[in-house]
Design brief:
The chain is an alpha/beta fold. Helix 1 packs parallel to helix 2 and helix 1 packs across helix 9. The model has no long low-confidence stretch (mean pLDDT 91). It has a 12-stranded mixed sheet, with helices on one face. The longest helix is centred in the middle third of the chain and has 14 residues. The two termini are 31 Å apart. The chain has one domain: TIM Barrel (Alpha-Beta Barrel).
Length: 329
């Protein structure tokens, strides 16, 4: 029997999905995220496996059943596989996923699957090598593609590709992504570029509405798919001629926040009720001993009552976040 989540906000939304960042470090230099590469900051280290397990147990005890390990690039941590095994061992975790840039994927797809990973998202902003290199700072597209094929061979429950939609860079690449999913059971999700605290010029130059892709898909006979329980924010389209799907994540669209079902915890142990909150709530004081579980649960339930009904991106309010790598996107 599935436990009903006790993590509910003042607007009746339930939160069964936890995005848990385990590092801010990334070895790629994507232009929309870390154009200058990761810059180490002074301060406390990232969550340990033990702290992360205590955190996850608190969420799961309140009804969360889906956990995604994020970063930065989560696989840069030498103990990444320990995180997978530890999360898999928590009773009540029904879905364990990660998001990766794919640079270590070909060598590790089997090991991660064997350790208990169910689903994987891989960032691929273009299937044109020169564009991939321009966006990420690395000429590793073929390695990443080989990693995706390895995941398909290993039988992951879901393999998805994330592509940040960039005007004049990859917004004309829809046909290439369609070709990729024609015979592969992969879901491609185009993510609208979002404004952050320090990317105003970049945003103005490269932002393009996902509505354009939606119109193209519908004109070509793609049909909008019913949203599954526990799913992320993507609106997915399917077509009878294709094995895969195309999804759109459009944070500027009407009612985007209405179906919000996910919470974020940064690699420093801070709870972010929204990607665009001004600050995170420090959970680390509740993660130092197993006996703090009840205290953690009480804090989480109270914190949810302060969650806003919506972000205010359309009003230019981007919150205190400057880099999505800081809180796992």
């Amino acid at each position: 029997m599935v436990q009903e989540t006790l993590l509910k906000d003042a607007f009746g939304r339930s939160f069964e999905y936890l995005r848990l960042s385990i590092t801010e470090v990334c070895n790629f230099r994507c232009t929309y995220c870390l154009p200058d590469g990761y810059q180490k900051q002074k301060g406390p280290g990232f969550l340990s496996v033990e702290e992360a397990v205590r955190l996850a147990r608190g969420f799961v005890a309140l009804g969360t059943w889906k956990i995604r390990l994020t970063g930065g690039e989560p696989s840069v941590r030498r103990d990444f596989i320990e995180f997978i095994e530890a999360m898999r061992a928590i009773p009540g975790v029904r879905r364990l996923a990660t998001t990766t840039n794919g640079y270590r994927l070909e060598k590790n797809a089997k090991a991660w699957r064997d350790a208990g990973l169910d689903a994987i998202n891989v960032s691929v902003d273009s299937f044109r090598p020169e564009v991939f290199h321009k966006v990420t700072g690395h000429d590793r597209l073929r390695e990443v593609e080989a990693g995706i094929e390895a995941c398909l061979d290993e039988g992951y429950d879901a393999v998805k590709i994330n592509a940040v939609l960039l005007k004049g860079v990859n917004d004309q690449d829809l046909s290439l992504f369609q070709d990729y999913v024609r015979n592969r059971p992969v879901s491609v999700r185009f993510i609208e570029l979002m404004r952050t605290g320090d990317n105003a010029e970049y945003f103005d130059r490269y932002h393009v509405s996902a509505d354009i892709l939606a119109q193209n898909l519908e004109q070509e006979g793609w049909v909008r798919k019913t949203r599954a329980a526990g799913a992320g924010p993507a609106i997915e389209y399917v077509h009878s001629d294709y094995a895969g799907a195309i999804g759109l994540i459009a944070p500027y669209s009407k009612d985007f926040c209405k179906t919000c079902n996910r919470l974020r915890v940064s690699a420093l142990g801070k709870l972010h009720l929204c990607l665009f909150t001004e600050f995170g709530m420090d959970l680390r004081p509740f993660l130092q001993a197993d006996e703090q579980l009840e205290e953690l649960k009480v804090f989480l339930c109270k914190a949810l009552q302060t969650k806003a009904q919506s972000h205010y991106l359309d009003e230019g309010v981007t919150g205190g976040n400057h880099r999505f790598a800081d809180i796992g996107g």
